[in-house]
Amino acid sequence: MRVVVMGAGTWGTATAKVLVDAGNEDVTIWARRPELAKVINTEHVNVDYLEGIALPETLRATSSVPEALADAEVVVCAVPSQSLRANLTSWTPHLGRDTTFVSLAKGVETGTLLRMSEVIAEVSGAPADRVAVLSGPNLAREIAEEQPAATVIACVDEHRAAELQRAFKTDYFRPYTNTDVIGTELGGAVKNVIALACGMATGVGYGQNTLATIITRGLAETIRMAGALGAQLETLAGLAGIGDLVATCSSPLSRNRTFGARLGQGATMAEAQEATHGQVAEGVKSCASVRSLAVKHGVEMPLTDAVYQVCHAGLSVGDAVSALLGRSIKPEVYE
C-alpha cells in the first residue's frame, strides 16, 4: 500500500522509518519546509528532530501536499493535536475517497473537546471505521534507535486494525490491535498532562515516592474520565494506558516531563518552551481541554486541574502541590 506520513517532526520521522522497515515499499513523508524535505531525500537524515539517526534510503520526502497525498491509501497524521484541524482542512481536497487515516496526535481539541479521531472524521468526512489511532509507550528516539517497543493500533473495524498492524510490524516494533478507540485516545491525551505534573515534581526536587503517587493517581483520573465517556477500562491497564503513562512520566526524552521540570525549577512558560527546543509539549494546551471535558462530564480530576492552574492561571508549582496535599482525605476508590 502507499503510505504517507504527514509531518516530519520527531515522531512522524520515526514512524516513517518504522513503516519502511516493516517492508512497505512506497512510503512518503511530508515536511512543511522544502529544505528539510531536500535533506531527507539527499542525506537521509533529519538533523532537526532525530540527529544521529540514519533514515532508510527508500523513504521519500516532499514539501508538496498534492504530491504527498496523490493516490495515498493510508495517511498517517503526525502533526500536533491543536493544529490537526487546520492541516486536515488544507489536505482534504487532495485525499481519496477510501483513504484510511492513522492518528499519532495525542490530545483533546480546544473548544470542541473532540478527540483526534473525531476531528479527522468531522473534517475529512471519513466514517469511523476508516480512522485508526496509534498510541503506546512510544518515545520516538528510542524507536528510531530500534530499541524494542510495542504499541496499540485502535480502530472500530478490527479487520482494518489488523491490516495496519501488519503494515507497522518490525523486528523491534510490535503493534497490538484494539477496537476501543475512546480508551486508547484518552490514555494518550491525559498522560501528557500527568507527565507535566511529574516533571514539576522532579523539578522541585521530589523523589520516586512522589512520582509513583502522581502516576498512580493520574491513572485513576484517566480511568474515571474513560468510564464517563464509555471506554473499556481494561484498555487503561494496557500499553495505551499505564504503558504510555509510565514511559512519558519517567523519561527525560518526554517533552511534557521536560517542560514540567523546568517549571518546577522556577522557569517561566517561555523559558520552559526553550527547554523542549521549540517542539510542542502537547499537555500544555491539552490540560485546558481535558479539564473542560472533565467538567462537562462531571469527572473529578484534581491533578489535571492543578496542572491547568500552573500553566494557564499563574499558580506556582509550590502552591499547586500544597493545594493537592490539602485536599480532604478519602478512601482509595475509582469512582
From TrEMBL:
Catalytic activity, as annotated: sn-glycerol 3-phosphate + NAD(+) = dihydroxyacetone phosphate + NADH + H(+); sn-glycerol 3-phosphate + NADP(+) = dihydroxyacetone phosphate + NADPH + H(+)
Active-site residue list: 191
GO terms classed as biological process: carbohydrate metabolic process; glycerol-3-phosphate biosynthetic process; glycerol-3-phosphate catabolic process; glycerophospholipid metabolic process; phospholipid biosynthetic process
Swiss-Prot/TrEMBL keywords: Cytoplasm, Lipid biosynthesis, Lipid metabolism, NAD, NADP, Nucleotide-binding, Oxidoreductase, Phospholipid biosynthesis, Phospholipid metabolism
GO terms, molecular function: glycerol-3-phosphate dehydrogenase (NAD+) activity; glycerol-3-phosphate dehydrogenase (NADP+) activity; NAD binding
Superkingdom of the source species: Bacteria
Primary location class: cytoplasm
Pfam families referenced in this protein's UniProt entry, alphabetically: NAD_Gly3P_dh_C (PF07479), NAD_Gly3P_dh_N (PF01210)
Binding site for NAD(+): 7-12, 140, 255
GO cellular component, one term: cytosol
Residue sites binding sn-glycerol 3-phosphate per the record: 106, 136, 191, 244, 254-256
Residue positions binding NADPH: 10-11, 32-33, 49, 106, 140, 255, 280, 282
Ranges of residues in domain Glycerol-3-phosphate dehydrogenase NAD-dependent C-terminal: 180-321
Binding annotation for substrate: 106, 255-256
UniProt cross-references to InterPro entries, sorted A to Z: 6-PGluconate_DH-like_C_sf, 6PGD_dom2, G3P_DH_NAD-dep, G3P_DH_NAD-dep_C, G3P_DH_NAD-dep_N, NAD(P)-bd_dom_sf
Pathway note: Membrane lipid metabolism; glycerophospholipid metabolism
Entry function: Catalyzes the reduction of the glycolytic intermediate dihydroxyacetone phosphate (DHAP) to sn-glycerol 3-phosphate (G3P), the key precursor for phospholipid synthesis.
HAMAP family: NAD_Glyc3P_dehydrog (MF_00394)
UniProt record similarity statement: Belongs to the NAD-dependent glycerol-3-phosphate dehydrogenase family.
Official protein name in the record: Glycerol-3-phosphate dehydrogenase [NAD(P)+]
Organism in which the protein naturally occurs: Gordonia rhizosphera NBRC 16068
